[in-house]
Amino acid sequence: MPDLFRNHGICSASFYKRQSKYGGTAGSDMKRLNDLEEENRRLKKMYAESQIDAEILKDELAVGY
User: Fold this and answer.
1) Domain ranges of the chain
2) Span 20-45, pLDDT tens digits
3) Rounded CA gap, 49 and 65, in Å?
């Protein structure tokens, strides 16, 4: 196994950590998990941008423009 880890550029600790987390997960489940994580990232970005816009509007209303 150490040769396999070395060939793929990962350490054994990373492999075993991922194996314990995702060991029984089917390939289709992993795809769905990755899709959900990407959607979550996109939604968090959208929320952050809308919060920035709301803060800008609140500041403009406070100043009286």
Assistant:
1) 25-65
2) 877 777 778 888 999 999 999 999 99
3) 22
